[in-house]
Amino acid sequence: MRGDERIDPEFRALPLAALADAALSRAGELGASHADLRVERILSQSLALRDGAVSSASDAVTLGLAVRVIVDGTWGFASTAELTPSSAAAVAARAVEVARTLRALNSEPVVRADEPVYPEVSWVSEYEIDPFTVPTQDKIALLAEWSERLLAADGVDHADAACPQIKEIKFYADMAGTSTMQQRIRIEPRFTATAVDRAAGQFETMRTLAPPVGRGWEYALGSVSRRDGGWDFDAELAQVPELLAEKMKAPAVEPGRYDLVIDPSNLWLTIHESVGHATEYDRAIGYEAAYAGTSFATPDQLGTLRYGSELMHITGDRTVPHGLATVGYDDDGVATTQWDLVRDGVLVGYQLDRSFAPRLGLDRSNGCAFADSPHHAPIQRMANVSLQPDPSRDTTLEELISGVDQGIYVVGDKSWSIDMQRYNFQFTGQRFYRISGGQLAGQLRDVAYQATTTDFWGSLRRLGGPSSWLLSGALNCGKAQPGQIAAVSHGCPPALFEQVNVLNTAREGGR
Questions:
Q1: Whole-model pTM above 0.90?
Q2: How far is CA 436 from its chain centroid?
């Protein structure tokens, strides 16, 4: 089926060509050297159950158009919820007015990298079942079944289940002649089991390791094979109560330095915080600093900064199937691609939009412009930033563990902390296993690993192979002021890091 035929017919029925003509013509008449129009319809549904009962169920629709212009080297932006040609022309005029007002404050004229023109192209993400075609009661029934299975198990005192779903439809057109129509879906089915030790006044939780994905409702149904990036929720629901009971009785970790085998379900978040945000070019030059800080990986170190060991190969990617940041064309009208950020352990690239690419001396953007709403201006956002597997050998997780005499296997993400330059950090996880003589030897509690970014990645000694690579991520990466939210995936294999500092979180917290 052609991509444009899968795009929501209600959206396709909007007067998109008329809106684009009205806005872009008016912007040109008023002196804009560049203008682009975005029309967006974003559907979202969030379902949550607590102990089998619905605790919240919400649906939302965001619809609107935005016009962005460059006048005398200065950006202007305006938006409206009214989708008529006359309102589009009025918004264009308002954007031009904003640009002229801001011109006196702009000390550096906007220069944009060139990009080919893409007339009347479309792109649709890969999914089988649009979750917005599935009756809400059917989705709640599935979450209730998960909750009931957990609550029926010994030792589980509470169960939470939830599933946010988003369908994003976007039309883009600019004065150069590019016109794109795109639709993508993302979903995150999840559950958490809680056990309470009332005598000790303590509790522990165990959450699914299933990542959010750019898929449809087929993912929640478990109908996609694990080999193809699906998830076996039935098997995990059966395992979690036993794992949680073991965690409740597990001994606390003794602080010290350990070899760590880190599962993809945990390592993705370390990649996100220590590499993903650190290689956003706007952070690296101090342009973005108010929200979560800047970056130690500054452009003067490009090509020389030893980020990690020679095994470290990290890519930016807006094309990987089912990635949360995957899209055909970004909000600058750029066709997306994959590129290197760290190669052989050395910093070699950044994430860029069309305005930042020329500052780095590049002829072309790598497609990282994104706005989370028709009422927000596009900013440079994170691609799917991923650690590549060992290309020479398909090493398994079991082989990585077997090569460790004394260490810890880290599974699942939980809390984290990192400084304002993405350099000093600390991460915990869902569960931890002692490794003794190359074998797992029971769970541990109260584990956190701590390092600087370059020391941590410098300690990388072995990688899993292609069959162990997993795409994880988050729906809610925040950036900018006013704040914007973006979804992003991070792929990686399990990996072995030597002699990383491990803390006992209970002792650190004075417990």
A1: yes
A2: 34
Distance CA 347, CA 464 (A): 22
CA angle 362, 363, 364 (to 5 degrees): 95
The amino acid occupying position 269 is: L
Name the pairing type of β-strands 495-504 and 460-463. Answer: antiparallel
Structure-token pair, residue 15: 């007067």
Share of the chain above pLDDT 70, in %: 99
Torsional sign, CA 257, 263, 266, 268: positive
Q: Alpha helices, DSSP H only, in 152-280?
A: 233-249, 264-271
Q: List, for residues 267-312, the tens digit of each pLDDT value.
A: 999 999 999 999 999 999 999 887 778 999 999 999 999 999 999 9
Q: Say if CB 42 and CB 169 are below 8 A apart.
A: yes
Strands (DSSP E) contained in 127-232 are 158-174, 179-187, 190-197, 202-207
| 314-317 sheet: strands from edge to edge | 346-347, 338-343, 314-317, 384-387
Start-end of H helices in 228-351: 233-249, 264-271, 281-284
* Digit-coded pLDDT (tens) for 423-450: 999 999 999 999 999 999 999 999 999 9
C-alpha atoms less than 13 angstroms from C-alpha of 23 in its C-beta half-sphere: 34
34-50 and 74-80 beta bridge pairing: unpaired
CA dist., res. 382 & res. 489, Å (int): 9
Asked if 159 contacts 194 with a C-beta cutoff of 8 angstroms, the reply is: yes
Q: At what angle do helices 16-29 and 85-102 cross, to 10 degrees?
A: 40
Q: What is the mean pLDDT of residues 457-477?
A: 97
Residues paired with 488 in a beta bridge: 474
In a 13 Å sphere around the CA of 479, the CA atoms on its Cβ side amount to: 26
Residue 1's Cβ-count burial label (10 Å; 0-12, 13-18, 19+) is exposed
Q: Is there a contact between 381 and 479 (Cβ–Cβ < 8 Å)? A: yes
Query: Is beta strand 121-124 parallel, antiparallel or unpaired with respect to 179-187?
Result: parallel
Which phi and psi (to 5°) does residue 436 adopt?
Answer: -135, 120
